[in-house]
From TrEMBL:
Cofactor: Fe(2+); Co(2+); Zn(2+); Mn(2+)
GO cellular component, one term: cytoplasm
One GO-annotated biological process of the protein: proteolysis
PANTHER family reported for this sequence: METHIONINE AMINOPEPTIDASE 2 (PTHR45777:SF2)
Role: Cotranslationally removes the N-terminal methionine from nascent proteins. The N-terminal methionine is often cleaved when the second residue in the primary sequence is small and uncharged (Met-Ala-, Cys, Gly, Pro, Ser, Thr, or Val).
Residues reported in the UniProt entry to bind a divalent metal cation 2: 230, 299, 333, 428
Alphabetized HAMAP family for the sequence: MetAP_2_euk
Listed name of the protein: Methionine aminopeptidase 2
Biased composition (Polar residues): 75-90
Length: 447
């Protein structure tokens, strides 16, 4: 999920942001998503029942039942995904992301005793296990999605398939009050077609059907205890778009590779753009240069807050001298386009979030008041969409929701689109700037 417009940081802002450094390493804990046992029926654990034969025959033979063995914990994921990640990786042994050693002036960090000690702390306070738990959930769900997304499916079907899977794998369906805050969706699933770059998710009644000719950005957020993994990929069925996708994948990997402690964000934007714009793509017989979308950017991630205080430009020349720092969590995302390389707001809003700086307002509209209560209790500051309100049984909430937006309590995120007829692509990873090493937490063998 990108931020719109480049954040123009003043000297004061930079100083203020510096003061907040490391906040990401000390987030709130809201419950333990790893402890869910998910014990089901133990019937299949009865080893000596004959495979074939009628139910009646089985009953006779089973007169003397052996004491039931405890069902073995599953060791493989199902299709569609349904096995808890905490069962596949007991005792919080979640797989690491890709660990990359720091370069140049920061080589010493790899072996520093002091930095290793800090790393151990983030293991013990669950910062790392929670992040790896969310990332493994992300990988398993998206790899299932990549295999199963096909033209002819509706966007609603695709979004629900992804979101139901995420909720099953973390063991929180998010229906009981406060449950979605423990673990689940980190933001609404973005299913952005063609010239739509970001922030599009189907609302109720959306009948859009995925076409063979579409280029779809799939942006998925998974959180465990507020640790949000933000990672996206692009799906296209027509090989005509291969170069567009390759450009953006390469640009994102450039950003991920060049990111590190003390790196200036403005500099990173230059590297990203240089890579992106070294590609072109022929679409329907016409060759287009691939442009970085200049008013979209990556961003830091804070506990329960998808957009932190720093942004990562994807073009050069911003002059942003802000540095990446130890403890920062960054979503490195890049967008390439065959269009203007600039997006604007357009279309029906689906994405919303309670603002972290929401003013205390005495709400006069009772529907707004009650909806605000629902939002606070179920999502806190995690972004949500209209479908998430629908599944909680909320009805006729639009007037109240719009009122909360007008009052500056809830922020709306309209779809961000380039010019009609253009094609855009996105790849995104979440990276942790750990004291000793950079961990590309969302890296998989897919992207
Ligand atoms: Co993002």
């Amino acid at each position: 999920m990108p931020t719109e417009e480049l954040q123009k940081l003043s000297v004061q802002d930079v100083a203020a942001a510096d003061g907040k450094a490391g906040a990401a390493a000390n987030g709130a804990k809201n419950g333990d998503a790893a402890e869910q046992s998910g014990d089901e029926s133990e019937d299949e654990a009865d080893g000596n029942a004959p495979e074939a034969g009628s139910g009646a025959a089985k009953k006779k033979k089973n007169k003397k039942r052996k004491p039931r063995k405890k069902k073995k914990a599953p060791t493989a994921q199902t299709d569609p995904p349904s096995v808890l990640i905490s069962q596949l990786f007991p005792n919080k042994t979640y797989p690491k992301g890709e660990e990359v050693e720091y370069k140049d002036d920061n080589r010493w960090r790899t072996t520093s005793e002091e930095k290793r000690h800090l790393d151990n702390l983030s293991m013990h306070n669950d910062f790392l296990p929670d992040y790896r738990h969310a990332a493994e959930t992300h990988r398993q769900v998206r790899q299932w999605a990549q295999k199963n997304i096909k033209p002819g499916q509706t966007l609603t079907e695709i979004a629900n398939g992804i979101e139901d899977s995420v909720r099953r794998l973390v063991g929180h369906d998010g229906l009981a009050e406060g449950d979605a805050i423990v673990a689940g969706m980190g933001f609404p699933t973005g299913l952005n077609l063609d010239h739509i770059a970001a922030h599009y998710s189907p609302n109720a009644g959306n009948k859009t059907v995925l076409q063979q000719s579409n280029v779809m950005k799939v942006d998925i957020g998974v959180h465990v205890n507020g640790r949000i993994v933000d990672s996206a990929f692009t799906v296209a069925f027509d090989p005509m778009y291969d170069n567009l996708l390759a450009a953006v994948k390469d640009a994102t990997n450039t950003g991920v590779r060049e990111a590190g402690i003390d790196v200036r964000l403005g500099e990173l934007g230059g590297y990203i753009q240089e890579t992106m714009e070294s590609y072109e793509c022929e679409v329907n017989g016409k060759t287009y240069p691939i442009k970085s979308i200049r008013n979209l950017s990556g961003h830091t991630i804070l506990p329960y807050s998808i957009h932190g205080t720093k942004s990562v430009p994807i073009v050069g020349g911003t002059g942003d001298m802000t540095k990446m720092e130890e403890g920062d969590v960054f979503a490195i995302e890049t967008f390439g386009s065959t269009g203007n390389g600039h997006v604007h707001d357009e279309g029906e809003v689906s994405h919303y979030a309670l603002r972290t700086d929401a003013p205390k307002v005495d709400l006069r509209l009772s529907s707004a008041k009650s909806l605000l209560n629902v939002i606070k209790k179920n999502f806190s500051t995690i972004p949500f969409c209209r479908r998430y309100l629908d599944r909680l049984g909320q009805e006729k909430y639009l007037l109240g929701l719009n009122n909360l937006v007008t009052q500056g309590i809830v922020e709306d995120y309209p779809p961000l689109v380039d010019k009609k007829g253009s094609y855009t692509a996105q790849f995104e990873h979440t990276i942790l700037l750990r004291p000793t090493v950079k961990e590309v937490i969302s890296r998989g063998d897919d992207y």
